[in-house]
Structure formats: structure tokens, C-alpha cells
Amino acid sequence: MGRSPQTDELTSERRSRLLGGVRVLCGGAVQKLWLPSAAVAVLQIRIPARTCLVVVDARLGLAALADERPTSADSAPRSQATLRAALEGARLSTARLERPLRGGDIAVRLGFDTPSGERALIAGDGPALLLLAPSENEERIIWAASGAGPDRRPGSTYREVEEVDRNSDPDRDPDRERSPDPSPEDAALLRRALAAEEAAGVAARRRELEKRLRARVQRMRRALAAVDDDAARAAQAGEDRRRAELLVPHQSRIPRGAREARVPDWAHLDDRGAPREIVLQLDPSLSAAENAARWFRRSHRYQAASARIAARRAEVAESLLRGEELLSRVAAAADAAALRSVEDEAAAVLGSRPSRLAAGADAPRVPYRTFRSSNGARILVGRSARDNDALTLRIARGNDVWLHARGVQGSHVVFPDAGEAPDARALADAALLAVHFSRARGEDLAEVSWTRRKHVRKPKGAAPGSVIATQERTLRARADPARLAALLSTEE
To answer: What class does CATH assign to 207-342?
Structure first.
């Protein structure tokens, strides 16, 4: 973001006067903290018989008393939780203006005494807030709001600074510094600055939600196309069975290697009552009996899956429609309240962790990562050995498909709701993830065992993640970087 118009209203003297109202709060405890944007923090500080609000603005390089708390805490970035953990309960110890020794803009430094030691919140000399901690003879950045820049990442050494001489201010009013109330002009300035940063935070939230919804809509469109392909194959299941039934009576006279078979079709007779001749295209690498058996298997598989395919198509089509509707509502959201309403509804559609904006509570940790197959099916991957146990033994259901890279350590992978006949594409995607999240990662070809969850058990006293699987089948997963990258990009 560019230079704020409020910056032109600030002089060093005015910054110093505003900071004077904050100095009277030294010794007070930080009760609450809000982060309306990466550039602004609002602290609620308790002093005897009074609670005050302090606005700290990195773009304006100021800290001052405020007459109201943020109107839209919904704009808070993810880093708010980290800063809250560091400073809530701390005591304000110092408040001063400073400037880098090698040149730069004036910054505000608020010092705090915390159970973990001294901390300093820096606002100014950069577009985002920083939190510092002493380290030997220097200070290091231990937290930086988004957009702070590559030279201000956590772990970096903070530049040397000098304190700005407040006594040089000819307009300095000691009585004003003892009063914790901002003037009407200063209060208006702070309201405008805070409103501008909150608007910027809401805009950033809108962009993030639009990005996630757009990615979801694109995934659903791809999933719908894949399900339509499956539906088209399922529609051919009856034709596969019919071809097999036509071939079986004549399979003994058709030599291996034949590319076609001419057989009579007694279901269609000509004017003389003779059957019409049908030409069946064969796979020359198989015998006629093997061709017929393959057609029977394919017909059975797709007929068994037809109901599931139809249900999946309805589910994907509904999700796509809902995602497109939410995307249009995000673009039309006029304020934070409207955006929050869309966000709450989007959480269910996105199928992701609860919004960081909801209720302020941390999202519960789940023991698995969720990916989507190219046809939209969910694939769950355990995060660790103990998480593998939780996924397999407590979350997966009896008929869910369970996979593991054969002969090596790796994550348990679960393909839920696979039905009687697991979709071949989703099964292959799950196998690819099983290899990627195992010691076999990087191999050109790896074997993956799969079975139903009901055939997996954990021996008494076995190490975390160690199980015994029976009735296993084996499939081979060949390295496919493009397909793997597409899979990993679907993580929710």
C-alpha cells in the first residue's frame, strides 16, 4: 500500500504529543489486543480505576490513545493470535519515539515486561508491525506482521536506533501528557487512520476468500467433468454385458490373437427370420474368453457403481452451484458484516478448517490432511505415526479403503466412502499420495498395499502407526510429477 493521506497531518511534535498520552499508562496491564490489519494494533490497557485503548499504527509511525475499539475485528490477520499470546497480560514499561541511525522514518517503540522477558512493539520505519526481544548486545525480531519485508523476518537482527529528543519540541505541554484523553482533532485523525486500515484488512480478506472460492469452483468443475466421464462409462455397462453375452457361445471357435469376432445377434432378425451379424472388436492380446470376462467385470463394476456415480454427480453439481453463488456474493459484499456472513457460509462449502474469524477459538487439530482426487473424492493422509493410529482406528469406517506404501514407513491413507467398487482413478490418486508420504518418495515405481479398513488391526503393544493388514491387494504407483502436483494443490 502507498503513503497514507493522514501522514501529511503528522509532525514529530504531534507524534510526540500523541505518545505523551500513552506514557501515562506505563505500569498498566495489557488486557486485550486486536490486530485490525498488519499495520495497526489496538491494545486495551488497564490502569488503576481506568481502562484505556491505545492505537499503534506502523504506516503513520504513531501510538496514541483512542476513544473506541476496532469496529471490525473481522479483518484480523492470522498473526493476531501470536501477538496476543506474546503481549496479553504484559505490562507497559516504556513509550518513546526513535529513528534508525542510518536513516529512515520515525518509529514508535512500546516496551513491555512479560513472563518471557522484555519485549518491544515497533510501529514505523516500515509498513508493518514488529515485535522484538533482546539477544546479547542486540535485538532480534521474533514476530513480524505480513508485509514487513524480507529484511524483517523473524530471527533477523533489528537495526540500531536512536531516541528522538522530545525536549526539543517547543510546543510540548507537560499538562497535556498527564491527561489520558485525546483532543477532538487527534481522535478524528485516529478514527480515520483506523478506518482506513480496517478497510484494507477487509479488502485483503475479500481477496483471500475469492481466491479460495475460485480454486474450489475450478476443482468442482474438473470433478464434474470426471464424474460425467464415469457416468458415460456406466451408461455403457449394459452394452459391455450384451457384447460379452453375444461372444460367450462362440468363444471356443475364435482363435487367440483375433482382432474381431463376427457373431449372430438373435435379438435382431431380418425379414427372413435370420439373425443379424454383429462385429465385435477384440483385444488381440487376450483370448475370446478373456475378452468376454473383461466385459463382464467392467459391466458389473460400473453397474454396481452407477447409483454412487449419480449421487456423486448431484453432490458435485450442487457444490459447484453453491460455490459460484458465494463467489458472486463475495464480490458484491459492501462491508465487513456482509463479508462475514458470506464467510460463515463458505466455511461449509470449502470443507476447510473453521474460519480464523469465528468466535476467536483455535481450530481443533485433526490428525490427517485432506486432498481431493481428480474426480472430487476425498483422500485422507495421516500426519504422523500417532495420527496414523487415530485416522485408521478411530476415524476410518469398516468399508473405507485403506492404503500404505508396501515395505516402508509412511502415512496411512484412507479413501472414505469408496463403495462396493472403488473408483480406479481415486484409488490411483490415493496410492500416489501413499508413496509421496512415505520413505518410497522419489522412486520411479513403488508398490502400494490396499484393503478395507475392517481388515486392519493393531497388535497389543505395537508401536504408534504399526498395524497388521489382511486380504491385501497390491497396485503399482508410477511417478507422475504433474499428477502429484495437481493432487497436492487440492489440500484443504
So the answer is: mainly alpha
CA distance 28 to 485: 52
The pLDDT score that the predictor gives to residue 46 is: 93
The letter for the amino acid at 90 is A
Write out the residue limits of the CATH 1.10.287 domain(s) in the chain. Answer: 207-342
Q: Could you tell me the three cell numbers for 274?
A: 435370420
Beta bridge partners of 450: 403, 473
* Closest residue by Cα to residue 68 from 52, 57, 80: 52
Q: Give the tens place of pLDDT for each residue, 69-118.
A: 665 554 556 678 889 999 999 999 999 998 887 767 789 999 999 999 99
Distances (CA, A) of 467 to 366, 383, 392: 20, 16, 9
Mean pLDDT in the chain?
A: 82
- Largest distance between two CA atoms of the chain: 118
- 305's CB contacts (< 8 A; 6+ apart) are 230, 234, 419, 420, 421, 423
In sequence order, the 6+-apart residues with CB closer than 8 A to the CB of 367 are 382, 383, 384, 386, 387, 388, 390, 391, 395
pLDDT one-digit tens code per residue, 292-308: 998 888 888 777 777 77
pLDDT band for position 7 (cuts 50, 70, 90): very low
pTM of structure: 0.46
How far apart are the C-alpha atoms of 94 and 179, rounded to whole Å? 17
Beta-carbon contacts of 173 under 8 Å, excluding residues fewer than 6 positions away, are: 17
| Whole-number Å distance between alpha carbons of 425 and 229 | 11
Domain 5-182 - what CATH class? mainly beta
3-state helix, strand, coil in the chain (%, to 5): 40, 25, 35
For residue 344, how many C-alpha atoms fall within 13 Å in the half-sphere facing its CB? 8
Domain with CATH 2.30.310.10 in the chain: 5-182
How many CB atoms lie under 10 A from the CB of residue 275? 13
Instruction: Identify residue 401 by its one-letter amino acid code.
Output: V
Tens of pLDDT, residue by residue over 291-349, are 999 888 888 877 777 777 788 788 888 888 888 888 888 888 877 777 777 877 777 66
Residue 437: DSSP 8-state: T
